[in-house]
Amino acid sequence: MAQPSTWDKFKLGALMGGTVGLGIGAVFGTFAILRYGPGSKGYLNTMGQYMLSSGATFGFFMSIGSVIRSQGTLEATEPLATRVPVRTRS
């Protein structure tokens, strides 16, 4: 079975981050509407703005983080001890 590509990891990170961001945006948006009122846009637009901005922001950073995390997964072809010279006392 082949490993997922970097693009696949980017998409998965964006999807997971966007989903978590939507949930967090719903919680904070509900709190803000209950505390300060919906403003001139109304309830639905205000809640949508909180959810979309939170989802987009968190999804962006999560996708970048998942790509950065996957960059160091190359396996070494030789042991570390053969690549690093070791000084010994004689």
Give your account of this protein's structure.
- Keywords: Membrane, Transmembrane, Transmembrane helix.
- It is found in: Membrane.
- The protein has three helices and no strands.
- By secondary structure, it is mainly alpha-helical.
- The longest helix is centred in the first third of the chain and has 31 residues.
- 17% of the residues are buried.
Radius of gyration: 23 Å
How confident is the prediction overall: mean pLDDT? Answer: 85
Oligomeric state of shown chains:
single chain
Helix and strand succession? HHH
The total count of helices amounts to 3
Record field, number of beta strands: 0
Topology (elements, then pairings):
Elements: H1 6-36, H2 43-70, H3 80-83
Which keywords apply here?
90 residues; membrane; transmembrane; 0% strand; Romo1/Mgr2; mainly alpha; single chain; elongated; Subunit of TIM23 translocase complex; transmembrane helix; 70% helix
Short description:
With 90 residues, the chain is mainly alpha-helical. The protein has three helices and no strands. The protein has helices at 6-36, 43-70, 80-83.
